Amino acid sequence: MAQARRLDPASHSGGEASVYKAWERFARGEDDLRGVRPEIAISWHRCRDQYQVDPCLTEAPAAVAEVDHALEHDVVFAELGFRAASLAHEVSALGGIVTITDGTGRVLAQWGDEATRAVAAEANLAPWFCWAEGTTGTNGMGTALMSYTPVLIRGAEHWCQAFHDWTCAGVAVRDVVTREPVAALNISCWRSELPATVGAWLGNAATLTQRILRRRAKDDGAELMAVFNHTRSGSSAPLAAVDAAGRVVLADDTAGLLLGIPGSTPAPDPAVRWKPELPEFIRAAKYAAEQAAHHPGWAGSTQIFTRLAQEPTSISFRPVFLAGHLVGNIVSFGVATGDPLPRVGGDAPLRAQPHRMVATRENRMVLLRLPEVSFAQSEGNDVWLSTDQGRLRSASPGLDRLETELSASGFLRVHRQYVVNLSRIREVERRYKGELFLVMDDQAETMVPVSRRNTPAVRRALEI
Q1: 14-195 — its CATH code?
Q2: 340 has pLDDT over 50
């Protein structure tokens, strides 16, 4: 990596001064974000309005002593540690430090320049302390865990003023199946800039490390497929093989129809999973996985509403293990065996629903009432909202999260790239081969495609 440039803390370029002034305004409650990058503005919004992190915080809090994580995560930590340690000499020569955290933002290890490490220790940027965004504000590690790409946090872009002398770059390593963060790798410099090559190095390190998780996902998927085929040979019940996150590796034709996913055609890669458009099913599968992970002999059942039935259908879960590691469950439909699961619908307490959505337009946060939003569309790692105020970038980091937040507020996932406001559909167009397109009531009368697997849910929601 190229040599870092030392900065005089008493001087600020025009851009840095603009960011600092925006930070001052936003920290005291104003929403004027002129000169602030959109990804930083979104993070500040989370810190101030969602997490309520004190911008005057001077040190990170102690980390929670025990956090559950899978065995393969330990392998990821070891791999990241190897990569970080191998770079330690080069980073140290720049006056920088390399840090790794787990998926909750707990610092696990650190290498680099001893003088910088001493300064970092004063802010608890050290092992056994937590740098999650929700506890310590916008920072390289915590904000990386909220992002799908490497992040760079310069000076006053940090939410807490005490960290404004730092420049940090971080990247998250994510589970290839669930897309949940497993760890973060971060490089920090005090009162100096990071080299331009740091983003590419971090992205490459994360990609190489995630290969471990992809290999594990392939092995898990292959085992679930094998147990599925063995079970199907002795059972007439519709079956699905489901991972611990509630995603389907393989289902027969009947189970596929009930779940709204392809049936009987294995994915080309065992690491590829299908997400059922049935929140009840996913919650039940996650609960079943948690029970089986702690009690290997556990089996259970519950009832859910599927896509084709007017009455609830019984489903049973039987765990599948590989070398003592839970890889998922075989789900039988129309069968009720094992311990009853808690009710996942009906009597479950209702989660508070959002009254507004947050978006960004240039330098401002835009607060939207839900009826103002026609639909959301994903483009790469970004989510864009079609609204009465034009096309705006959503503060939500992914369409899956947005779908979860709005599922009980009249919004429906109709395509892998689209979540629509059902009340904003003006017309439904049916094409020659039966494909559906939704004509929205925006000024452009945008036509949103409906995927085949989501067509039954759309028909049911619109009663057509």
Answers
A1: 3.30.450.40
A2: yes
